[in-house]
Write a structure and sequence with these properties.
Blueprint lengths: L4 H4 L3 H18 L36 E5 L3 H11 L3 H4 L5 E6 L15 H13 L5 E5 L6 H7 L2 H7 L3 E3 L6 E4 L10 E4 L8 E11 L3 E3 L1 H4 L15 H11 L4 E10 L12 E10 L2 H8 L11 H8 L13 E4 L2
Parallel strand pairs: 1-11, 2-3, 2-7, 3-4, 7-9
Antiparallel strand pairs: 1-10, 5-6, 7-8, 9-10
Length: 332
């Protein structure tokens, strides 16, 4: 689905009205309280009771690590991309507890491209249940803006719930401290551990976006949203923190949505003029490979994003995605 004419014609007044109504709906539903939300999150702890995250990845299969599907219909492209890798049944089995981590960082409507698209979230949730046989699907993020507003205005909260998922918003008691072995930044640092505690599968879903600090916000950067604490202090060493995030979170599958890529003014954007219809969706078991391909949609090279090389050197994946024999399909 591209950026349609109705979206392009939405004026500022209608957007404000829509946002106010969404905020009111959140309050009425009791999803969360903006008044109680600490945007800085919980502080780092005393070094005791560190948690260790499981490796959520699946065994590699030669020639089935990354798929690239061209087309403007997200429902068609995500289904095809997953099927090309072996189907959702490869990634989700009966009885699994699946966490889906979309990018819900901002209180922004989906058509502006700053967040994951609710269509994708709903479709992947349905696949996890209908074909994967999941016991439970949890959709969660620790946004930059007020979480309840982000999930409401982006449409992700409603889409996830209607598809049967549980939407879990951040709460101090859901954070635990973790350390990245061999890391220099993530040491005794709070992470959004609660949703992952009983899960055995982790799926990341993120848009392709320009980013004023890191160069691009893609698959690896998406998991920044599972960090707690005053994580903005890491912006001064953005490529190292993205690398360490890739070392910490080992997802089952990532889905990178380049249907409409944010070419300018990322990561928040704010206008459809910031977007380009690149009509591409990537599914991959390798975040590094996904990002190496995805940066091309932003007219960037791998060398423009130091964290791709750094993550590869840290053993998080392969930047030469062509060596993985990507499977291609086209709906155009």
């Amino acid at each position: 689905m591209g950026v349609n004419n109705n979206d392009k014609n939405l004026d500022r007044r209608n957007f404000i009205i829509r946002s106010v109504k969404a905020g009111a709906a959140v309050a009425a539903a009791g999803i969360g309280s903006a008044m109680l939300y600490d945007k800085d999150g919980p502080a780092s702890g005393d070094g005791k009771n560190l948690v260790t995250l499981p490796d959520f990845s699946v065994p590699q299969k030669d020639g089935k690590t990354i798929s690239i599907v061209k087309g403007s219909d997200r429902i068609k492209t995500v289904n095809k991309a997953i099927d090309l890798l072996g189907g959702i049944e490869r990634f989700v089995q009966k009885g699994d507890i699946v966490v889906i981590k979309p990018n819900v960082a901002f209180a922004s409507p989906a058509f502006l491209g700053a967040t994951a698209h609710p269509q994708l979230i709903a479709e992947v949730v349905k696949l996890c249940y209908s074909r994967g046989g999941a016991k439970q699907v949890i959709v969660t993020d620790n946004p930059i803006n007020d979480p309840a507003s982000c999930f409401a205005i982006s449409g992700i909260g409603k889409a996830a719930t209607q598809a049967g998922a549980k939407v879990l918003l951040p709460d101090d008691k859901l954070f635990e401290n973790a350390t990245v072995k061999g890391g220099k930044l993530i040491k005794n640092w709070p992470i959004f551990y609660g949703p992952l505690q009983k899960a055995n599968k982790l799926i990341g879903i993120s848009p392709v976006k320009d980013h004023h600090r890191s160069g691009a916000s893609l698959s690896m950067k998406n998991f920044y949203g599972l960090m707690g604490g005053r994580r903005n202090i890491f912006h001064q060493d953005i490529h190292t923190i993205i690398t360490e995030i890739a070392m910490l979170f080992k997802p089952t599958l990532v889905i990178l949505d380049g249907t409409n890529s944010m070419m300018h003014n990322g990561p928040t954007g704010g206008s459809v003029s910031d977007l380009r219809d690149t009509n591409t969706l990537i599914a991959s078991c390798d975040m590094v490979a996904a990002d190496a391909f995805g940066c091309g949609l932003l007219d960037m090279n791998i060398s423009d994003l130091p964290y791709i090389r750094m993550a590869e050197e840290a053993g998080c994946g392969i930047s030469n995605y062509e060596s993985l024999k990507p499977i291609m399909a086209n709906f155009s």
